[in-house]
Specification:
- By secondary structure, this protein is of the alpha/beta class.
- The protein has twelve helices and eleven strands.
- It has a nine-stranded mixed sheet with strand order 3-2-1-6-7-8-9-10-11, with helices on both faces. A two-stranded antiparallel sheet has the order 4-5.
- The longest helix is centred in the last third of the chain and has 23 residues.
- It is globular, with a radius of gyration of 17 Å.
Length: 279
């Protein structure tokens, strides 16, 4: 199935004039590490630019000051770290926050290590809300697929081809078939990024038709992850949230390319164009 702007408008929740910020989703983002501060920024702003009411961003304490200066709207808070990445000591504070959240994103810029894995395992084991696993979070799962299969709440994986290959093996010529098999194996929802992004829960499927080569730049996927967790927090069903996120992200990229050209467009530009699609 392919989405249109009319489908997106139908799926997005209507906003009550008496609503408050708590009505538009509380989302927790666990992102960033020393040297990868941009990933946390792009994910948090992607969530805000698509309507999340409250965005909580947990980052390693050594980059807290950077993120707090760059980001005015999210609630940025420092977490214990080791070597510039989240440590296992961060788990208790994260688990204390999760029950109040409508969705969680983990992975962009997270870095690889025992502490990062401890945090990922704790989130996937204890979160009763939908969890988006992106970027380094996917790589950390390579020897630990049992964690995914044991989850009862929805899990959405957002790999590019390299991450997909590390977890499930090479992407075949029929990309949707590969995504479908991986979704069934992981008992989750697969958003396989690339030209004509494939979104499937193993049974139903969406093939995205928006986007362009100008989006092939570091940070673009972090924006997508933020858009996805925002839509989940606002109450969209996980499969539809993933499909809508891919469409909105790609369409914002198309607007950027139309105005700026594909060569010079940046993820920052995506953040500026996203709200134009949601008027």
């Amino acid at each position: 199935m392919e989405l249109t702007m009319a489908d997106i408008a139908r799926l997005l929740p209507k906003r009550d004039e008496n609503a408050h910020k708590g009505n538009f989703g509380r989302v927790l983002l666990l992102c960033g590490s020393r040297g990868y501060t941009g990933a946390a920024y792009f994910a948090a702003m992607g969530a805000l630019r698509t309507g999340a009411g409250l965005v909580y961003l947990g980052v390693p304490e050594s980059i807290y000051a950077i993120e707090a200066v760059k980001l005015n709207e999210p609630v940025v808070f420092p977490l214990p770290e080791q070597g510039g990445r989240l440590s296992e000591a961060a788990v208790p504070e994260i688990l204390e926050k999760i029950p109040r959240m409508d969705a969680v994103l983990i992975g962009p810029g997270l870095g690889l290590g025992q502490g990062s894995f401890a945090v990922l395992k704790a989130v996937l084991t204890h979160a009763a809300c939908p969890v988006v696993v992106d970027a380094d979070g996917i790589t950390l799962l390579v020897p630990h697929m049992d964690i995914l299969r044991g989850r009862e709440a929805p899990t959405i994986l957002t790999p590019h081809d390299g991450e997909f290959t590390r977890l499930f093996g090479p992407v075949g010529e029929d990309r949707m078939a590969s995504a479908r098999a991986a979704a069934l194996e992981s008992r989750g929802i697969m958003l396989l990024k690339g030209h004509r992004t494939c979104v499937t829960d193993g049974i139903r499927e969406y093939r995205n038709t928006t986007g362009n080569p100008g989006m092939a730049v570091g940070g673009s996927g972090d924006v997508l992850a933020g858009v996805l967790v925002s839509l989940l927090g606002q109450g969209l069903e996980p499969l539809e949230a993933a499909a809508c996120a891919a469409w909105l992200h790609g369409k914002a990229g198309d607007l950027c390319a139309g105005e700026l050209g594909e060569y010079g467009m940046l993820p920052t530009d995506l953040l500026d164009f996203l709200p134009r699609l949601l008027k």
